[in-house]
Design goal:
Dihydrodipicolinate Reductase, domain 2; alpha/beta; Rossmann fold; about 260 residues
C-alpha cells in the first residue's frame, strides 16, 4: 500500500484526487491538508488539517499530491524535500529557475518528484504532436482557454508545449513583418528562451471552460490546428494515479508526464 497525502484536498482538483485515492486498492489515504476547511471530515478518521509540515511529520505519507496555489507551491516543495517525502505536483506557476532549484534538491536528497503541467493523457499527446509538427512548419502560435478562477497565465501546459516545440524549431516567426500593438497585449505574450522560440501565447479566461488548448501552425498555403479539450477534471486522474505509482518506485526528478508514459 502506498501511503498517500493530499495537499489542497478541499479544492476542486484536490477533491477529485481524494476520490481517486480512496477508490484505488494500492493507495491508502493517510492525511488531507488544506488551509480551508480545517477540521472537516473527509473519510473515516481523516480530517482536513491546515499545517503542512506538522501533518506530514505526524502521518509520514510515502507520496504527497499537491494541487494548491502558485504563490505557495515552491515553499511547499521545499518542505517535502526537507522531510524526504516524495511528491506529485499538479500546481502550475513555477518559474524556470525554481524548477532548476527543485531538480537540484531532488538529486541532493535522492527524493523523487514529478512536476506535471498537465495530467491528461490527451493533453500530453497534443503536446507531443505539436513537437512533431514543429519540424515542418515555419510559424506557430498557442491559444489556451481556462475558467476564470485560474490564477496564473499563461498556463503551465502552454509553456510546456512551447518548450517542447522549441526543441524541434528555434524560430516560429519566420518572415513576420515588424509589429506594432495599438492595444497593449493584443498579440499575447511572446515565449522564448535564450532568444529562441518566439512563440506567441494567448491566454483566455472565461466561465464555461475547464481547460482547452489549440496550437496553430502555418506555412505557405496551409495551416494545421492541434486542439485538445478537457471536459471535466476526472480526465486528469489516470495520470495522477500513474504518477503516484511511478514516484513511489523511483527517486528521480521528472518534469512532464510524457517522461513516464
Amino acid at each position: 500500500m502506498i501511503k498517500t497525502g493530499i495537499v489542497g484536498a478541499n479544492g476542486k482538483m484536490g477533491k477529485q484526487v481524494l476520490n481517486m485515492v480512496l477508490n484505488e486498492p494500492e493507495f491508502a489515504l493517510v492525511c488531507a491538508i488544506d488551509k480551508f476547511g480545517a477540521g472537516q471530515k473527509v473519510f473515516e478518521n481523516i480530517i482536513i488539517e491546515d499545517d503542512i509540515e506538522k501533518s506530514l511529520q505526524k502521518h509520514t505519507p510515502d507520496v504527497v499530491v499537491d494541487f494548491t496555489q502558485p504563490s505557495t507551491i515552491f515553499d511547499n516543495i521545499k518542505t517535502y524535500m526537507k522531510l524526504n517525502i516524495k511528491s506529485v505536483i499538479g500546481t502550475t506557476g513555477l518559474k524556470n529557475e525554481q524548477i532548476e532549484e527543485i531538480k537540484k534538491m531532488s538529486l541532493e536528497n535522492s527524493t523523487g518528484i514529478i512536476i506535471a503541467p498537465n495530467f491528461s493523457i490527451g493533453a500530453i499527446l497534443m503536446m507531443q504532436f505539436a513537437k512533431t509538427a514543429s519540424k515542418y512548419f515555419s510559424n506557430a502560435e498557442i491559444i489556451e482557454f481556462h475558467h476564470n478562477q485560474k490564477k496564473d497565465a499563461p498556463s503551465g501546459t502552454s509553456i510546456k508545449t512551447a518548450q517542447l516545440m522549441m526543441e524541434a524549431n528555434s524560430n516560429f516567426k519566420l518572415n513576420n513583418c515588424p509589429e506594432t500593438e495599438t492595444i497593449k497585449g493584443a498579440r499575447g505574450g511572446e515565449y522564448q528562451e535564450n532568444g529562441k522560440g518566439n512563440i506567441q501565447i494567448h491566454a483566455v479566461r472565461m466561465p464555461g471552460f475547464v481547460a482547452s488548448q489549440e496550437v496553430i501552425f502555418g506555412s505557405d498555403g496551409q495551416t494545421l490546428k492541434i486542439h485538445h479539450d478537457t471536459i471535466n477534471r476526472e480526465c486528469y486522474m489516470s495520470g495522477v494515479n500513474m504518477a503516484i505509482k511511478y514516484v513511489y518506485q523511483n527517486n528521480n526528478f521528472i518534469y512532464g508526464l510524457e517522461n513516464i508514459l
